[in-house]
């Protein structure tokens, strides 16, 4: 004799509300005007050094950087 189990699915109701983020709250400018950016310290590809991340970047690579700090 086989047992047949019935599967029941529960429906979860999720209420969604719109979220408004203030402009430029989560992102800053690019490297060229950042405190951590060192334009004179470059690698062989011409990318400048970022003291915060410890890597070399082109200024356009870090649009909206989370560690951006104004000079």
SSE order and pairing:
Elements: E1 37-42, E2 48-50, E3 55-57
Antiparallel strand pairs: 1-2, 2-3
Walkthrough of the structure:
The chain has 71 residues and is mostly beta strands. It has a domain at 31-62. It has strands spanning 37-42, 48-50, 55-57. The chain has a three-stranded antiparallel sheet with strand order 1-2-3, with no helix packed on it.
List keywords for this structure.
single chain; 71 residues; mainly beta; 3-stranded antiparallel beta sheet
Structure class: mainly beta
What are the segments in which pLDDT stays under 50 over at least 5 consecutive residues?
A: none
Number of strands: 3
Mind telling me the C-alpha Rg?
24 Å
H-E string: EEE
- End-to-end span in angstroms? 78 Å
Q: Tell me the fraction of residues in β-strands, as a range.
A: 15-25%
- Strand order within the widest beta sheet: 1-2-3
The proportion of residues forming helix, as a percent range, comes to under 10%
Entry summary:
The protein has no helices and 3 strands. The protein has 71 residues and is mainly β.
């Amino acid at each position: 004799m086989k047992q047949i189990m019935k599967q029941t699915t529960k429906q979860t109701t999720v209420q969604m509300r719109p979220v408004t983020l203030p402009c430029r709250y989560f992102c800053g400018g690019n490297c060229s005007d950042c405190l951590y950016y060192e334009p004179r310290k470059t690698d062989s590809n011409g990318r400048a050094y970022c003291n915060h991340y410890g890597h070399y970047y082109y200024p356009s690579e870090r649009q909206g950087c989370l560690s951006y700090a104004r000079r």
